[in-house]
Amino acid sequence: MARTWVLDTETKGTGAQMVPLEKRRAEPGRERDLTLVELGGPTRALPEPGQPAPKLFKVVDVMSARTLAENVGAREAVGALEGLRSVLDARISVWSPERGRWRVLTLDEAKALWAFRAGPACRWRS
Questions:
Q1: Backbone phi, then psi, for 26, in 5-degree steps?
Q2: Which residues, other chains included, contact 68 with Cβ-Cβ below 8 Å and sequence gap of 6+?
Q3: Which residue in 40, 5, 38, 43 sits closest to 24, CA to CA?
Q4: How far, in Å, CA of 57 to CA of 91, rounded?
């Protein structure tokens, strides 16, 4: 709830202070000395958070420089990693709409995506 503030000029030479209107109205005989100050503009409605756009991935085989998958979701990107021996055999990028270009995943990010594949090292997950 918004509070209304007033400028209190009865401060004995130390300058004016902003005080709540309710505090000034509580003092008898001070109502006529009030100076109303409007702070800020109209309240703005916050933008409604929408559904985030799904991430788009690009997977390139490092050895052959062949694009294995492009503009695909995470599930398809993990599927493109199935035939590779190591996370280092692929260059995985994610589309960045803010920059308007592909951003190569860090090694930790690529390992996190690599962990979802169902290769021989991950058979225990099923």
A1: -70, -25
A2: 59, 60, 61, 80, 81, 90
A3: 5
A4: 10
Q: Where do the domains of the chain lie?
A: 1-39, 57-118
What does the longest C-alpha to C-alpha distance in the chain come to? 88
pLDDT digits (tens, 9 = 90+) for 78-98: 999 998 999 999 999 999 988
Distance CA 61, CA 56 (A): 17
Distance CA 34, CA 10 (A): 10
- Which parts of 1-126 are beta strand (E)? 5-8, 17-20, 57-61, 67-72, 90-96, 101-104
Most confident range, picked from 7-16, 25-34, 35-44, 54-63: 54-63
| CB neighbours of residue 6 within 10 Å | 21
